Amino acid sequence: MAEGAVDAATVRPAPPDLLEVADESPETLFAMMEEHGWGDGLPIVFPSEERVERMLAGYPGPVDEVLAVLPPRSGAATVRTVAVNAVMAGCPPAVFPVIVAAVRALGVPQLNLQSVQATTHAVAIMVAVHGEIVESAGYNAGHGTFGPGWRANATTGRAIRLILLHVAGGYPGDGDASTQGQPAKYGFCFAENAAASPWPTYPRSLGIDAPSAVTIAGTEGPHNSHDMWSTSPTPILEKMATVMATLGSNNAPMPGAEFFCILCPEHAAQAAQAGWSRRDVQLYLYDRARLPWGLWREHFDWRYRGSPWASEVTDPATLMPIMDSPDLIKVMVAGGPGKHSCVIPSFGSMALSVTVPVETW
Amino acid sequence: MVRGLRPDGATTASQHTLAPPRRVLAGARIGVLDNNKPNAGLLMTTVAETLAARAHGPSPLVLGKNAALPATDEVMAQLRQQVDLVLTGSAD
Question: A-B interface: how many C-beta pairs under 8 angstroms?
Fold first, then answer.
């Protein structure tokens, strides 16, 4: 490096906090958002001081507390700024504790938000809600949990995206280099269906013993895995394994990457009726989600296979697990009646999910 | 008028100034920080070798990093100590 380089660390002052608009008509608000380069392209609720105060009502700490510093803009996500975005997204105050916890999770280093935001990959932030707050805040864990129709799911996912845009500065082409993006970047929130799950809740499986929790991960959208014919877990999970063992996802060249395998209640029940635990599901998927080593080498520089034993493999027909450990397979139950489960591939081994308790007030 | 609050807030970003450009390449020690994106190393190393040959400098120092993570402190220290300029930043 040439001598004379100067690194002057400075903190840029906050712009004036206040906005003023002539009225709250959609036309006025669209014009305001366009003027500032804000928003996701959809209509917003104007973040009046009164609405923001209602969102913050009862918050037990200082509202200027910085929950996380969000890249690439290095934006300070204060409780108040997060509330502004929650209002804009249309959130009811009941979901605000989830959003606060989720923003704290965005700042955990293992999530690697800098890379999640800036990559050319289509990664979105997945938000999974667990525990008592699912019912108390009105989240839909049943029919169409990933889809539209429920304010809590829709606005929580959207609020996180607005925060990633406004506070974090992840604008398409300027902070977010995603080649194509994906619909989940508008908002991606669902709820674990604990009532229909035969197993302990997902946070409990991680040792988090809190009444409510939220999981954040950088992922693709859900990939369907359909089986309406089988009455035992192995063919159901066999299909799921084939969805996992593909060459085009980031998981393929990165064996340290996570998969989220979201079983519908009926598939989960069939596994449980056969005596399978969540761990059994993980182990079976680990055993079956494999591709021939030779095929891998045709497609990827084998050095990407970070496993210490990978370089010892010589037979191209050897079946390689698509992930290093069954622990990387994250199993939850969500959705309603029917025989559709899904696999959610992730961004990669350099960005791992975070589950944190949700503190309510 | 209706009053509300901005959704972006303050930033804690550090501001960096660029190193002054090197006006003469003669004898320069050139480095490559390869982010391991496909062809990034090939492209940047080829450019570095071409520049080094023209400038009659030593062979380029090529070091690597994970594309999704910062370069390690060790790599950055090597670059600071051993080269005068670094080629980096090529993506997919």
Answer: 139
